Amino acid sequence: MxxxxxxxxxxxxxxxxxxxxxxxxxxxxxxxxxxxxxALQPLSExxxxxxxxxxxxxxxxxxxVPILLxxxxxxxxxxxxxSKRAFWWTIWILFPLGGGLDFFFAQFFLxxxxxxxxxxxxxxxxxxxxxxxxxxxxxxxxxxxxxxxLWLDGYWLHAYIVPAFDARRTSIDKLVGFHPDSVVATxxxxxxALVYKRFFTHGEPxxxxxxxxxxxxxxxxxxxxxxxxxxxxxWRAFSLTLFMIALTxxxxxxxxxxxxxxxGYQHTAMMGIYLRAWGNLPVEAVFVWLAVPYTTxxxxxxxxxxxxxxxxxxxxxxxGRGHATQAPAHVPAGERSSQSSTQEAKDHSPNKR
Length: 353
Fold this sequence. Notes:
It is a single chain. The chain is mainly α. It has one domain. It is built from 15 helices and six strands. The strands form three sheets. A two-stranded antiparallel ribbon has the order 1-4. A two-stranded antiparallel ribbon has the order 2-3. α7 packs across α12, α9 packs antiparallel against α10 and α11 runs antiparallel to α12. The two termini are about 35 Å apart.
């Protein structure tokens, strides 16, 4: 089947994902907005009877089980190669971002009213303690998102992969760029949050700090890295990862976490848009599960391109000759088979000096 040049372009693929997301989100948003009164019991009446002992702890299997199964699957596949260094670099870059949210801002943004849903081990955070499950949640969450993307990228949607040593990666002069559209989009989102909080929440006090934190967390990688790695992202794998993670996580929050008090949100730090049908879930919770896959994939593909270039971090990200790091001794078999499909990849094989 022949694919038109427009359909094959990274720009078209990116906008197609957004259109697909809007196609699904718009009717869902309209339906949820029709609910004026929540059918759920007040949280104080629910948690008094300890309805979900260790529920939060057990629910982390939603991330753990896919992690174990996909990891085991990769171990047994000799012909599929993933960049382990890029994988772990990505995790150790993103986990502090999630963990930092709890450590620095949990006292302002979050609440954990049902302590009986955890194992009772308290982890440190500024201003208050948080359940140890919170840090495990962020660590396993990023692991699950990245592994699902790699599984789709390397197997189910392998036809659309951009191999590690493809010319579209190795020909990038520098990985850091500037994407003005990301700045404009973030400014508009933050402006909307401020205006809505000020004029449309019927005098609800506070500041939309949580939404602003999330928007800025997405802005930095998108503004600096998106222009150069847009062409190497497997957008089909990304779109499926996005829908799988968003659907699973929102059902997790709407049917379990919010109704039973495993975690919650401080309304003074929210924008003020709530989904009453989902236990007054703030719209920020939806934004999180759209932002996490986006940021994870951008960071991973950037690090993968850096490692494939053989350059030092400074040369790869900022440009210039720099000092090359030790190049791989050979291209893995899985990469060789992927490269053989395009002349560009052959011309940029690391075996050619």
